[in-house]
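Problem statement: downstream parser choked on a complex file, so we are re-checking the raw output for the adenosine monophosphate run. The parser issue turned out to be on our end (a line-ending mismatch), but while we're here, posting the original submission so the record is complete.
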Amino acid sequence: MKLYKNKVELQHILKPFFDQKKSLGFVPTMGALHEGHLSLVNEALEENDCVVVSIFVNPTQFDKKSDLKKYPRSLENDIDLLNSIHGDIIVFAPDATHLYGEHILSKPYSFSGLEFEMEGRHRAGHFDGVGTVLNLLFRIIRPNKAYFGQKDFQQLQIVKKLVEIEQLPITIVGCPIMREQNGVAMSSRNRRLNASQLNQAAMIYRTLKDVQNRFDQTSISKLKTRVKTLFEEHPEFELEYFEIANVNTLKSAERKRKTNTYRAFIAAWIGGVRLIDNIALN
Ligand code: AMP
């Protein structure tokens, strides 16, 4: 395990890999690592000669300062976890001014409208922040492949668009959602829930499964009403959105078309923590 905070030192250690044309896999994270992150790292290890994991809580993708402040951080623990799966992972954990320079600002992007749906509608500037930090990291690390979880499905689609826009020769690999035994999607934010809230949070996945099971025989408007009612029966939650969207455009679907592929998406608050999850429908 090698930890770098400096981009020049990181590039120096990566140079032999470029020179020998070895394949480099990259897993960007914000740390507080869990099995979901490790599944991405394992896939990257299987498919590449060398793997870089970045650990950086990116300030420009947070719309609320309080959320950024409360975001869990555990660098030492993260390093131990990565060491436990493989001894040769390279970790890049820069601080914000080193990565961005003096002005920690995001660049405005246009992701063909993907940025206006769901997360984009509820978190102002979020995807500009995501695009900016990934563009910086991609240009420093120059990976052949970069790994992203379907947990953040909208982000995954936007990153595919980002490499097109920035003309970066990087293959974006989407990886399945890892879940706790009760179905809750693993997330660094789950650390902020107590045991009872973590149990209650399983309702999000139960609802998504219910929608998946009914999708073939039920209209989208009936499914939407049903989900709204289910959440009303669980006042511990505040439902921010429920959407059934086309996976390519991420636009909310009103009617099903056989040729389209859909996913259901939920964002909900419990105990002051915002959770997101999604599921494939057809
Ligand atoms: P984050 O540290 O939350 O920015 O996540 C870093 C990467 O891990 C992103 O590509 C996420 O989509 C992915 N990820 C987070 N949670 C999970 C999960 N439960 N299963 C699979 N991938 C995940």
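For whoever reads this later: The two ends are 41 Å apart (CA to CA).
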